[in-house]
Amino acid sequence: MRVVSDGADEGVRYEVADGVATITIDRPERRNALSWPVVAGLRGALAEARTDGTVRVVILTGAGDRAFCAGADLDGMVGADTLELHRSRGQLAGLFQDLWSLGLPTIARVRGYCLAGGMGLALSCDLVVAADDAVFGTPEIDVGLWPYMITVPLCRSMPPKRALELMMTGRRIDASEADRLGCLHSVVPVDELDGAVASLASTLAAKSPAALQLGRDAFYQVWDLAAADALRVLHPALGIAAELEDAAEGVAAFRERRPPRWTGR
Q1: Conformational region of residue 34, where left means phi above 0, alpha means psi within -120 to 50, and beta covers everything else
Q2: What is the pTM (predicted TM-score) of this model?
Q3: Which of 103, 126, 224, 262 has the fewest Cβ atoms within 10 Å of its own Cβ atom?
Q4: Cα dist from 82 to 29, 88, 90, 237, whole Å
Q5: Of 68-77, 96-105, 143-152, the least confident
Q6: Would you please indicate which residues are annotated as catalytic (active-site) residues?
Q7: Fold for domain 2-205?
Q8: Residues with Cβ < 8 Å from 188, sequence gap 6 or more?
């Protein structure tokens, strides 16, 4: 394992091993709550993963066994003035955009509390693997706030009216209900969480990185488009993807009944 950054100042650790970058919110004493330095640290770690040619998959998780991320650190997310606070809040939107535009598959590894901004963060990843002790929710309403910034990842992950109900009531749901709502890739026993995440990451890392990047980019590009507009984007994208070296290699490997040897081009 290569520890790229221990993130002592930001509360974020970034490690790379076998083509997998693991980004850990490292504030277990605060249930891995988000502060502005943590958000900046997460964005910095994603930028490192984006430019590291050895990275094929990114795992996002929280330190310890109590929480993935319990939401905003209400004591630590106060700006000096209204304008500064407004700009800082834009960093969370930037973090979601960073995840969607990363060009690499992302997996949220969730244990314990996954609340408010933490839930939005997990659902901004491509896939979510949760332990059966995970608890999800948007409790902002209970402190007189509203989960504005996470509305997009929530509504992209479950029926919008179900998202609205969670936001209006602030109620918490277990991993089983989150799975039924369509938020999760899988739910596993606590002692199987690391193995399930590692297996999924290994599966993704074995795919053509070029095909994954182009296909994943196209997926997010057309998500909110009308069907006709989406097809106008996807048609030329298919033409580009079909010319990849990896596409030719994949077809050749299929015909020759051998494992493909990806070049990422």
Answers
A1: beta
A2: 0.93
A3: 224
A4: 29, 10, 13, 43
A5: 68-77
A6: 140
A7: 2-enoyl-CoA Hydratase; Chain A, domain 1 (3.90.226)
A8: 129, 130, 131, 132, 196
